[in-house]
Design goal:
- By secondary structure, this protein is an alpha/beta fold.
- It folds into two domains: 8-96, no CATH class; 112-298, Dna Topoisomerase Vi A Subunit, Chain: A, domain 2, CATH 3.40.1360.
- Helix content is 35%, strand content 14%.
- It contains eleven helices and nine strands.
Length: 300
């Protein structure tokens, strides 16, 4: 038997119809729809009888016709419509049917984060395998992390700086020694970090940002739900910051910083940092931070 499959669009339409049929006896779909025409062609191929359901402009779906479609899918070894695949990976899909839908279900890296975790003291195996087993760099599913074990979530903007963190190259406040350190992410890890941050927000614990001292980097810290920003001392930045580190394309982020500067009281520790960015138009990339100890600045 021909193992023709319904497209993702066709299955989505049928799932929507199936949902509506729970509260309506019938659901009409316009015959002008290419997706409907695909469904009807598939039904005819497998000899599902339309009966009087086909009118001049609409095709009428009822519970009986949907049951016929489900029965045919089962006979073909394909996924039933009623089963949810949004949270199944492709291996789990394979375990429940012969076909797979790459555009449906959980993508392989959707829940992944790149994290640094403190190594367990006295772990003999780590000491045998690693020269510096102070922290482990792991690609893992954020849902497997016990967030109660950490007092802070520290997000690092740049990948090279994230890796350097494990080598002790950054002078961080001692209270961050047991922080959960995570790479901010690119197309591979951004989704996982977003979901981790949403869950972390419910804990009420500090969410820290370590990124470039430039208009874009500080805007990220201010507008993406962080509570604190890690930066070098102001005296260090006044000495090292340069216009080269805040190029012209960063100007579009200046308006937001000016607004924040106007909102903060004069005594706020972030004020002088913002003035350096807004008034002097100077910045400093994160890679230069290793020359000094960093300070933890509240963002509110």
């Amino acid at each position: 038997m021909n193992q023709a499959r319904l497209s993702s669009a066709a299955r989505k339409m049928l799932r929507g119809i199936q949902q509506k049929l729970k509260t309506h006896p019938q659901v009409d779909k316009p015959l002008s729809s290419p997706t409907l025409q695909e469904i009807l062609a598939w039904c005819r191929e497998f000899q599902l009888h339309e009966g009087s359901r086909c009118g001049s402009k609409h095709f009428t779906f009822d519970a009986l016709f949907l049951k016929q479609i489900e029965k045919t899918l089962k006979q073909l070894g394909q996924h039933p419509l009623a089963q949810e695949y949004q949270h199944l990976n492709r291996e789990d899909q394979a375990a429940s049917g012969l076909d797979e839908y790459k555009q449906q279900g959980e993508k392989p890296r959707e829940q992944r984060i790149l994290a640094k975790l403190p190594a367990v003291a006295g772990d003999t195996l780590l000491k045998m395998l690693l020269h510096n087993p102070q922290r482990l760099t792991l690609d893992l599913d954020w849902r497997e992390v016990d967030l109660t074990c950490f007092e802070q979530l520290l997000v690092v903007e740049n990948l090279d700086s994230f890796y350097s963190y494990a080598e002790g190259d950054y002078g961080l406040p001692e209270q961050l020694n047991q922080a959960l350190v995570v790479y901010r992410g690119d197309q591979l890890y951004a989704s996982g970090l977003k979901q981790l941050k949403n869950c972390w927000r419910d804990t009420g614990k500090p969410c820290l940002y370590l990124g470039d001292f430039d208009a874009k980097g500080v805007n990220i810290a201010l507008n993406e739900g962080y509570t604190h920003l890690l930066l070098p001392p102001l005296s260090f930045l006044k000495d090292k910051a340069a216009a080269l580190h805040q190029p012209e394309q960063q100007l579009l982020y200046q308006k937001s910083l000016r607004q924040k500067l106007q909102q903060l009281p004069a005594s706020h520790p972030l004020v002088d940092y913002l003035r350096l960015l807004v008034n002097d138009q100077r910045g400093l990339k994160q890679q230069w931070f290793r020359e000094t100890r960093l300070e933890l600045l509240p963002l509110k």
